[in-house]
Amino acid sequence: MDVKLPIYMDYHATTPVDPEVMEAMLPYFREHFGNPSSRTHVFGWTAESAVEKAREQISHLIGCKPMEVVFTSGATESNNVALKGVAWAYRDRGNHIITTAIEHHAVLDACGRLEKEGFDVTYLPVDRSGLVDPFHVEEAITDRTILVSVIAAHNEIGTVQPLAEVGRICKARGVLFHSDAAQALGKISLKVDDLQADLVSFSAHKVYGPKGVGSLYCRMTRPAVKLVPLFDGGGQERGRRSGTQNVSGIAGFGKACEVASRVMAEEGNRLTELREYLKSEIFRRIAGVYLNGHPERRLPGNLNLSFARVEGEALLLSMKDVAVSSGSACTSTTMEPSYVLLALGVRDELARASIRFGLGRWSTKEEVDYTVQKLTERVERLRAMSSGWPATKGRNVSVQDTPS
């Protein structure tokens, strides 16, 4: 099998910069290096023009006004701006925030910090496929609720949440609605008006753009969302995020969104087919495999599986020529079982034996075939070392059937 090694199957952790994106960025390192805030000469005007062009490119992809795009250093900052900025700005109205138990740590830890400041946070459960029930959201809203935050598409299990239903509930109850959409941008349709979202967080490096740049959609009408900024300084981004803009990164982010708007539909279909092929081949060749996340409502390139009677760390270490992960890149330094899988009701042993496959723009069928072959060999070898495997060997199932 002629495949270039190592193989990258961790596109949810980060993505390589698209060649079109790189080309769009290069002029702003040396030729057009001006500060966008320098409005008295052509160097500053050129840089400002690049920032505003990117704002338009991003707004076109998500269906908002360019002025509603706030540039940040990434989705972590965007999540913090959204949660803390709203909490501080609306404290006189209420102190209650609603989120889910499976959010990214950028949301969970921000909520934890707000709890220390006296805010109340409700962490809603999810079902066995990772979906939050919109009815539970409505039920949790009180007259003190100021914000609901629900992840758009999950970075570990790929489950796509019912954001439109949650958005309608929030609007009807007069509560602001935020979503962490770092993994969803450029992979599934995200029109903010369809979702009735007030704030949405994005990151460039998840959509074939550069690291270190992201954005926050912040609604400016019906009515405008108030934010207390995290940073004090020069008042850039209409006072919502001070600091000299990362012009080259922003130009790359804009181009990445332009490319995504052009290829998203076709790319999504291809990756869904490739993911289903990967899944079917693994299920055909390996017994005792469990699917984590929703079987249908999931990101095109995401596949999260647990392997019975396999030590997760050993399996990952044995797959040296294929880059996969056990879950979020932000928590990959610990081999503790995924809090996300535990929240789904997956038992500890299987949560420790999960692998997230992330397919992307340059993934191929040949790479999938090689991965399945190596995975089969590694799992069989590790199970041969486990005396308990023959007693549990059996069919493959989705997470809903996983023994708890």
Gap from first CA to last CA: 39 Å
Largest sheet data: 7 strands, mixed
How many DSSP E strands?
Answer: 13
**Helix-strand makeup class:** alpha/beta
Q: Taking strands numbered 1, 2, ... along the chain, how are they ordered across the largest sheet?
A: 2-8-7-6-5-3-4
Rg, alpha carbons:
22 Å
What's the number of helices? Answer: 13
The helicity comes to 25-40%
Assess the beta-strand content as a share of residues: 5-15%
Low-confidence stretches: none
Principal-axes geometry comes out as globular
Order of secondary-structure elements: EHHEHEHEHEHEHEEHEEHEHHEHHE
Integer average pLDDT: 94
Task: Give a topology summary.
Blueprint: E1 7-8, H1 19-25, H2 42-62, E2 69-72, H3 75-89, E3 96-100, H4 105-116, E4 120-124, H5 134-140, E5 145-149, H6 163-173, E6 176-180, H7 192-195, E7 199-203, E8 214-218, H8 247-285, E9 289-292, E10 302-307, H9 312-318, E11 322-323, H10 339-343, H11 348-351, E12 354-358, H12 365-384, H13 389-392, E13 397-398
Parallel strand pairs: 1-11, 3-4, 3-5, 5-6, 6-7, 9-13
Antiparallel strand pairs: 2-8, 7-8, 9-10, 10-12
